[in-house]
Amino acid sequence: MESLERAVLDRLASLGIAYERFEHPPVPTVEQAAQHWAGIDAAHCKNLFLRNQKGNRHYLVVMAYTKRADLRAVANQIGDGKLSFASPERLMTHLGVTPGSVSPAGLINDREHHVRVFLDRDLKNAARISFHPNVNTATLTVALADFQRLLADCGNAIGYLDV
Which DSSP state fits 65? Predict the structure, then answer.
């Protein structure tokens, strides 16, 4: 097990969060991951790591994997100017992960709470949420309330939007 994943599992254990873990081949896109999610009862998410035009603000947008985000509409709801996908270097700097492994679990690496998190409001209706444990060879599922506890423990600003 990679140390990136171990750090996530250790954080979950320290918070007393129960999880289920599912292994699969490396899946760099949600389309590829969806092939391995059959039988996993959870809201499966797509995670977008974005930056504003100046590059001085970064956002993690978490939504159902079946949705497509209109970045202009997301920017309007967030209250920032034009948004674009952040570079692999910015992703590594702020979340400690590589493209294809973007996950809310990466927030455990954002000790300065630089990244602002926005969840799709529809996720509030999910009983369980799935996400990568900072590697794309496994998927974890946790209860929604536990997912929210993990996010709160990371200390990043959290908001909701409609995707």
Answer: T
Backbone angles phi, psi at 109, to 5 degrees: -95, -10
Which DSSP category does 153 fall into?
H
Core vs surface per residue 48-60: b (16+ CB within 10 A) or e: bbbbbeeeebbbb
Q: For residue 110, what are the contacts with CB-CB under 8 A and spacing of at least 6?
A: 94, 95, 96, 154, 156
Between CA 48 and CA 16 the distance in angstroms is 27
Please check the confidence at residue 119 and state whether its pLDDT lies above 70: yes
Tens-place pLDDT, residues 80-118: 989 999 999 999 999 999 999 999 999 999 999 999 999
> Is-contact 159 59, C-beta < 8 A?
no
At which residue do the structure tokens 């973007």 appear? 102
Cα–Cα nearest to 129, from 60, 44, 30? 44
* Torsion of the alpha carbons at 110, 6, 67 and 156, rounded to the nearest 10: -20
The answer to whether 94 and 115 are in contact (CB under 8 A) is yes
What is d(CA 103, CA 48) in angstroms, rounded to the nearest whole number? 9
